[in-house]
Design goal:
The chain has helices at about 40-50, 70-85, 105-110, 120-130; strands spanning about 15-20, 25-30, 35, 95, 115-120, 135, 150. The chain is an alpha/beta fold and about 150 residues long. The chain has a domain at about 65-150: 3-Layer(aba) Sandwich (Rossmann fold). A four-stranded parallel β-sheet has the order 6-5-4-7. Strands 1-2-3 form a three-stranded antiparallel β-sheet, with no helix packed on it. It is globular, with a radius of gyration of 17 Å. The mean pLDDT is about 90. The protein binds zinc ion (ZN). Zinc ion binds near residues 28 and 31.
Length: about 150
């Protein structure tokens, strides 16, 4: 098994933190970032997120019902939108990477942002795009050309 260096600072040394569902989590000794080691391959990640139950039904590895969490997420999302509005009162183009079903984008759109999203889960990307009428793609490589005023992750 190949040991991985810290994806943030590049340090090679880490200490084990925990393991869950076959993934070992380690903490970088230099910067204290916690990351999975070994990192799953892009193919393994794709399989994980294409599971249709990831955002609705998989309590172990995903969410029981992401849409049902909107009410709980709203205060957090609104706080972030207030911060963005202070930085960019004129609004503009906003890209949310990892946008799930697009709830953050929905709130941003209602506040005057021109929004787009990236969501690795194909069913969620499709649903967000359909519901909001905006581009939501499964990879940053698939974004239409252009620039964004704000990128959220
Ligand atoms: Zn580090």
């Amino acid at each position: 098994m190949r040991r991985q260096s810290c994806p943030i600072c590049g340090a090679a040394d880490s200490l084990p933190v925990t393991s869950r569902r076959g993934y070992q989590y380690v903490r970088c000794i230099a910067c204290r970032t916690v990351y999975v080691d070994p990192m799953p391959t892009p193919g393994e990640v794709a399989v994980f997120y294409q599971n249709p139950t990831y955002l609705a039904g998989d309590v172990e590895a995903g969410y029981r019902d992401y849409a049902a969490m909107h009410k709980a997420l709203a205060p957090h999302f609104r706080r972030r939108l207030r911060i963005l509005a202070e930085l960019l009162p004129q609004r503009g183009r906003l890209l949310d990477v990892g946008c799930a079903d697009g709830y953050f984008l929905q709130l941003a759109q209602a506040e005057g942002w021109e929004v787009a999203g990236v969501e690795i889960s194909e069913p969620m990307a499709r649903e967000a795009s359909r519901r909001l009428g905006v581009p939501v793609v499964t990879s940053v490589d698939k974004l239409p050309p252009g620039a964004y005023d704000a990128v959220t992750l």
